[in-house]
Amino acid sequence: TIEQFLEITAENEDEQGDISEITEELQYLLENKMNLNNPDYMVLSNVLGFSRLQIYNLRTYLETYGKFYSLYELLLIDGFDTLTLQRISPYITIEPLKKENKLSVKDIFRRGRQSVLMKYGQIIEKQQGYLPISAEEKSKSPNSRYLGSPQALMLKYKFKFSNRLQFGFTMEKDAGEPFFKGKNKYGFDFYSAHVKIDNLSVFKTMVLGDYQLNFGQGLCINMGFSMSNSVAFISADRQGYGIKAYSSANENNYLRGFASTIDCKYVDLTLFYSYKSLDAAYAEDTVSQDILFVENLYNTGYHRTENEMSKKNTIHQHLVGGHVDYRFRIAQLGLTACYTRFQSPINKTLKPYNQYSFNGIDNINIATDYNVLVKKVNFYGEIAISKNLALATINSADFQIHPRFVLTVSHRYYGRNYQSLYSGAFGENADNANEHGLYVGYQWIIGKNWQWSTCFNYFRFPWLKYNIDAPSSGFGLQTQITFSPLYNFNGYLQVKIKSKDANTATAYYNEIGITQRQNYRLHLTWNPLQNLSMKTRLELVNVLKAGTSKYHQGYLLYQDIKYSIKKIPLSFALRYAFFDTYSYDERIYAMEDDVLYAYSVPSLYGKGSRVYLLTNIGIGKHVLLWFKISQTYFRNKSENGSGLSKIDRATKTDVRVQLQVKW
Known about the structure:
By secondary structure, the protein is mostly beta strands.
């Protein structure tokens, strides 16, 4: 499911969402399965993807019939089928309830899980940014080479005891960044740490250090990973989880300070404060060297050249706010407010498409969210305003028309001048502004082993967008049939069509034309043996660019083989992929297996092949070692990449080594 979501995210946004946090949660559940007789409903919704209707039906079943005796009892509950059971079964178990004894500090540290993770990665071929250069040439072009070595390094420590106590730290250096030299004279380029305590007296959650927030539908603040807007999860519901400790190596999507949720019987009160440094390009006073204003914020996290390093941690940001959550049995109401202030004002270069974007030194966001369950209909939504009194709202409903058929309808209106720096609600635009839309989707459990899901998303942008010089619109359609005719064989057939307006250059001005992309995918998984798994995928793509009348094609075919020897333990994962596309516009994304907590969704375009080998071996009870080598070969060109990442060869080879010690 995560695989499909990431591929869709990469296609829609041309970037990969950070899922390291959710992969850690899934790995923890693999090793410490959740007892479904005492479920954590927040984990079920935000990690395993349960809808509110599924959670309500599950809760009602437990209250009516008592504890589970078998996982297969889930099939008796509305909204659950064999395919859902197959997806979640590795992470849950059925056990009798145990009485929890009072724990001492010694018991917590004795029973807690600790791990140290070390990762190394490097591209083998020499890239342009690492080639030798004379001191004279470097002084003339200081940004023509990277400041550091081509190795990417990460060190992570984590302690976790159940869902009661968690703390750890992360240190990371990207390829090309200096290490123990220059502006990174203390070692790594990025440091992160956190302490999280749950269920301590009236405090449901307390976090000190780095954390993320997610409230309501995300119009005010949503910093986490969400699998909505995917054909795998038809519901548009974001299901805000509140506070979450942060241990990822992503250098942007987090807050730094403290946050706490207090249980006030019928009301949960969350308070938070953050103070952190941001990367930015700025204009400064030539005499005093003081920053006059910020021209733009940067969120790449890269500090590899003099230019990138000059933007590092140049301004500071304060963010303070709170959330009140009032929960009934079948309803929930929430109110979120946050105030953010920068050290220096943001003053972006004014262009026609960005004249409604945030400029200034501070901003206020206030939002109210709701969720009401009436019989078999779940209504949910949020209304938000920003400091300039601009409005944004989303209102949705999930209808359980039949125990095996769920329909979702969602309408959104995001004003062209709505401004929120940390929003992440359902929609086509990442900033939840300048968008009106209607979403309709359904999930139909056709039979014991068949499921059909379809979603249609219409969107309209009332104002200009980057590279679209007029109001524009478009739609997306996804339909997928998932099947599992045999216990060891399953797959899905997926069709995706996306059409939207785009600029078409003429002799004197830009005209608006239609760009359309069609993807057709067949994905099969076969487990002929308990320790052998095989995956096959064929994907075809057709792209019509604005201003043209001819579709250009591309295709991808890959075969995966996974084999494990549990007695050692040792596992192998091998893929061979063959791709052929007309140009970059027809690129195809395919998620790969990777070292623990990491992920890779490369875009494949041109004519060539890609192969990778991933091995994982256990050394004793406490040590795990991963090794991955992957190579992309382009048969239609003698070089690949561009700029400082350019390689004067037809291949690109990536090596990753990871060692984990846990006790």
